[in-house]
Amino acid sequence: MSKEFKRYQKEIAGRMLTVDINRVAAQANGAAFIKYGDTTVLSTCTASEKPRDGIDFFPLSVEYEEKLYSVGKIPGGFNKREGKASENAVLTSRVIDRPMRPLFPKDYRNDVTLNNLVMSVDPECRPELVAMLGSSIATCISDVPFDGPCAMTQVGLIDGEFIINPTQKQWDEGDLKLTVASTSQKVIMIEAGANIVPEAKMIEAIYMAHDINQDIIAFINEIVAEVGKPKHSYVSCAVPEELFAAIKEIVPPEAMEEAVFSDEKQVREENIRQITEKLEEAFADNEEWLAVLPDAIYQYQKKTVRKMILKDHKRPDGRAINQIRPLAAEVDIIPRVHGSAMFTRGQTQICNVCTLAPLSEIQRVDGLDENVTSKRYMHHYNFPSYSVGETKVSRGPGRREIGHGALAERALLPVLPSEEEFPYAIRTVSETFESNGSTSMASTCSSCMSLMAAGVPIKAMVAGISCGLVTGDTDDDYIVLTDIQGLEDFFGDMDFKVTGTKEGITAIQMDIKIHGLTRPIVEEAIARTREARLFIMETCMKPAIAAPRPTVNEFAPKIKQIKIDPEKIGEVIGQRGKTINTIIEETGVKIDIDDEGRISICGVEQAGMDKAIEMINMIVEPLEVGKNYHGKVVKVIDCGAIVSLAPNKDGLIHISKLSDKRVAKVEDVVNVGDEVDVKVIKIDERAGRISLSLKDVQ
């Protein structure tokens, strides 16, 4: 190789992590060619030379590219090329973005892209984890300003034992899917799905991961010390202090406090609009100040709200620190759908609709995890612009919508019945009617009630709530807020979402804007969310619907499941599907068969379902001599009548067995299309003949 590169190695959880620097992608600001086991990811960090004009935010993009060659697959469909990012890729990008974004300078406006190219996948080493570590390393060694490093560890739970960086199989089958990101001092991101894990056990897992992260951070620091580039200077987009001083002359602090102190979002927005007009008029001759005025007003509001909360313990809507906004819940608000529920918390309102379908309608998944090829439960979340009083054309779900839907889906998965208990595909859709903070948690509550209203026998009720945070100058100067609204989310330091049952946690998603949380903050937030979700379940959700309905909705399909010998599946299907199609045509049902011999019969009319089951049983069960059966005359011949007992099971009623009296002509007794009860009097296995009698039926 023409150029020299550096290789760094560290053993983590019994597997070797290898990082090559300066081996590939030399033109990126920073690049790490990283392997964990045989899983290989190229992580790069690039930044634009100049800031982007006309924006008041840091333009960070995180990409996670799943290449199917990494698992030896060719993409399906006509276009044999990877298309748009999968749901897993979007969610992974979000998990990488959330801990890293707060570590970039707040006044940095250069475009930054973190790209992760998954090139090979070892089932023993999850590629998502490798990409997370690669992004941190690539950014740390680059010349892009970044207050890292940060590190990430995943924790699984099997038979009560924690597993560090579990294999893909352990991750899919265990009771915990926890990802924790840390800086050298604090936890900076938590993402979890859990099978009703107690709060104390969850905290133990979080800080086990945090301790392991410290070793990884030390490893990254060694790499940075040897090959890290000096951080480049940049044009600061901070608001001039002179502008702040001029604004306060026109709008003193008490006026701004009065403007933001209201429990109505629209009132606050109107107050700020009037203040903005007054300031634009005052600074009409200063183009430089007008360009940054929106950001200055935002920061002025932020400082005002934070001071009110932290020092005066006053929230913008007047609530107590641990008080939840007014709650309301109702079910069956949408006619004819299989299940519906609406949950309202203050100015956040979600309507959820549940749809049940045969298992044939499960979602097929084509991704890098070969253990997961389908999804039986789907939760989709929609966030239209009218929910926040804005006008914007809908262009389909973005990353936020996909993330919120996945969080609510993860929250409810642990309480869903198994396919054997409830052989349905299930889809719930959350429609955001109104939004002012934590719609994903309202989605969790409404979808739980919608499932119960549809007759899905969930194991326990699930609710969710979000806690916020405002911090001061020291680690012990902070205040945790229960049920944050939009303003407290925008101006606060944390959005800590927790869902769960009465017994434990089912999901966590923690976003923060500061450089990490201390353990007391994490423990208080988890305790506060438990208290709040129990309150929501007892005072709001249970009065609306206390338990799943005993049967599915009248408009939902009815499904019965039977089990047959897997070796008999071919007989039920028949050559080119002829047998099963005959059953479907005659009974009007839908039929799904899996490889283990489970057959789901789905229909609207009970009689058709019963007939389909009878026909299937006739196919798979041997006929018994001396037993009566029901059949249909399909052919008349000189010597008798051919009767179909089941597809591919025909028997002959000899003319002498049609009646006790002498029969001159077969048609005198039976005709094609007649349904008759017959007795099996003889079975010739070798010849494949079945002899039937009409006259011997008792």
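(the above was protein one; protein two follows)
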Amino acid sequence: MSDKRTTLTTRQGRPVADNQSLRSVGERGPATLENYQFIEKITHFDRERIPERVVHARGTAAHGYFEAYGKIGDEPASRYTRAKVLTQTGVKTPVFLRFSTVIGSKDSPETARDPRGFAIKFKTVDGNWDLVGNNLKVFFIRDAIKFPDMIHAFKPDPVSNRQEAWRFYDFVMHHPESLHMVTWVKSPWGIPANYRHMQGSSVNTYKLINDAGEAVLVKFSFEPRLGVKNLTSEQAAEIQAQDTGHATRDLYDAIERGDYPEWEMCVQIMSDDDHPELSFDPLDDTKRWPEDQFPLLPVGRLVLDRNPDNFFAETEQSAFGTGVLVDGIDFSDDKMLQGRTLSYSDTQRYRVGANYLQLPVNSPQDEARANTNQRDGQMAYHVDRGPEQSKHVNYEPSSMGGLNEAPRRERDYHQWVEGHLGRYELTRTADDYTQAGERYRTFEDWERDDLINNLVADMKDCPEHIALRMVWHFWHCDEDYGRRVAEGAGIDLEKAKALAPLPGKPAPGQNREGSTYRSGELEEGTPRVTTNAAE
């Protein structure tokens, strides 16, 4: 008798003796409706692809672990947070890290000029913690209500199915907050050489909470031990001509040969208030916190040491959400973070199903297993419940052995909130130009040249009114920045400079009340951000 482990069966476990022919009436047919084996096989085949992610569709991933230093900078981590994943030393917390591009489809080239997703699932002793970020430390917009419009503008034209430069810049020209990100993504930083030489960032601002219920604002960053490497457009084109999945190949092969990539997790910390001394709101994710004022403080190391056993079961079905936090890490009032917290988990329920958290790649580790009163739903294959005697009780509270609430803390974080309910834009808008100009000036010459070349090519594909407005924006970021784009694209700089500010937007350097902020000349001591070109 054949070994059951190697015998082909139906999904119900019945051995299959003939996998070559339909059951039919006679040799030529017709086939009959009771072809259960065929129906099961073909209907599953029809469903082998779950809906593609609207964004971050092209990705790859790996397993690994995170080890906390037990300190944040030179101080005990417990001063700032009670999250065990950041305070306990000697513990290797399992992680699953998915890298991705943003705009392209699942089979798009990994040389695309695009932000890169950097999404980590920490399977901590207190449950899952998802940190869903990007490689670049800023974003295009600061209010989640704009996100669908932004993605629609960056995606292919719904009629021609082509990505068009004019669509991208038609959106950007109305959102000066995007200029900082545009300056990053149109430079070599928009094409990382691979995932192992790439930074990661939470982008959004969170809070750390300690045992005393005290909070600080925090941003998370991941610095690659191998250093940062990016590509120019020419280098990317050469790679793409040979391999559209070079970054996936690089990561997989490195792990297989034992060259495990590693990042140092760092945090920036700021007191939990609105910081009126800054020309930008610290919750604005289109801005970076200056590292000379808010230094990167090491908190632990992240290592990737195992490739997935199956791409679809793990990488494709992995599901992340910005609302997945553990005790000691909390939400800030960042409008993008709060909008993402609804959107991400909603997306996973649509893509993978109501019980996506029962999949092994997404479920918490055994010692933090899920115990809930949630039942049923699409593809439920076990019940998230506690002791055996509670199986009849799917409600709380109960006197019949159901689940109980966890003990409450005597001292916990309570945020005071008051204000008028309404729709608001941030008033501190001067830095929409300042930080973009600073970034332009801190780039190395080869990075600045590549940025200008990319923007010049784009401006040539835009209608005149869009190109003029973009030059106006670039000139207000830095005069040399605007001048070089105008000259390269054959745009009349004086005509661009003569444009009035956008309707409803404050003039560069002013807030909505008309107060003037100091122009953002690069201050002495501001650190340069540099990279090495990929060899």
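Reviewer note on protein two: The chain has 14 helices and 14 strands.
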